[in-house]
Amino acid sequence: MSFLKRFNAAVDEAKIAQPVILFCNGYKAHVLYGAAMFCLEKKIILYMLLSHATHLLQPLNVGVFSEMKTTWSAHVMEWMQANEGEVLKKMYFSGILKKAWEDVATKEHSQKAFQKAGLCPFTEKAVDYSCLLTEEEEKQKKEQKKKKEAEQQGNNAQLNEELLQIAGTIMDINMDDNLQSSSFLDETTGMMYAGKKKLVNKSGKKSHVKKKS
After folding, report:
1. I need a surface site. Which of 8, 21, 67, 195 has the fewest CB within 10 A?
2. Distances (CA, A) of 60 to 105, 123, 131
3. Which helix (H) or strand (E) holds 180?
4. Model pLDDT for residues 15-63, shown as the tens digit of each residue
């Protein structure tokens, strides 16, 4: 609401004839009841840009942010060349950002951004539709995604089965080690107890007995 009020004040100050159209993304706050009623009262037409298409239709994305990335990289390189051997710390960030922003945030860049997005002047052919998927391509993309997810689930199931087998083998080894370490010689009877199942006499003969108490 605060932005809408500032936008309306700017429209009134510039004495722009109404109604005016305001392009915005699909952010939910833009379509709240209070915002909608305010726009209706002030003759502001809200137009929501298509989802997942702001890289083609939103002027900031098309003509400002991309240019900002390039300009920022150039200014960082310039700073590194002027300060060879130094690390770009936070204390220098705002100064470099200010230079990059002043180079990009101009009236000329903003106007070109709206032209590239086909919004002002309104030009349908200005939009690069080759970046958008057709209905058939979108369907194929979804099918490929489902297939990939199914394969991933199968791989995870196989991996879990292998891990369970490994865990079972480790448990068997540990049980064998415990049985061996629990063997002892009964000096009174001359019998060797191997765990709790069997015993061996000195002659090497095996015999089964009840559990030793």
Report:
1. 21
2. 10, 17, 18
3. helix 135-181
4. 999 899 888 876 666 578 888 889 889 999 988 877 777 777 888 888 8
Task: Find the Cα–Cα–Cα–Cα dihedral 131, 135, 141, 142, rounded to 10°.
Answer: 140
Residue 62 CB contacts under 8 Å (≥ 6 apart), including other chains: 55, 56, 113, 116, 117
DSSP code, position 11:
H
Can you tell me the distance from the alpha carbon of 194 to that of 200, in angstroms, rounded to the nearest whole number? 8
Instruction: Tell me the torsion sign for CA atoms 161, 167, 170, 172.
Output: negative
Query: Residue 203 in contact with residue 192, Cβ under 8 Å?
Result: no
E-strand stretches of the chain = 20-24, 44-48, 184-186, 191-194, 198-201, 206-208
Q: Please check the confidence at residue 189 and state whether its pLDDT lies above 50.
A: yes
In this predicted model, what pLDDT tens digit does every residue of 147-187 receive, in sequence order?
888 888 888 888 888 888 887 787 766 666 555 555 555 55
**Residue 211, φ and ψ in degrees, nearest 5:** -60, 130
Residues 107, 24, 120, CA angle at the centre, nearest 5°? 45
CB-based contact 156:86 (threshold 8 Å): no
Secondary structure (DSSP) of 64-87 = IIHHHHHHHHHHHHHHHHHTTT--
For the record, the structure tokens of 200 come out as 């061996």
Amino acid letter, residue 182: S
Reported as a single tens digit per residue, the pLDDT across 78-109 is 999 999 888 888 899 999 999 999 999 888 88
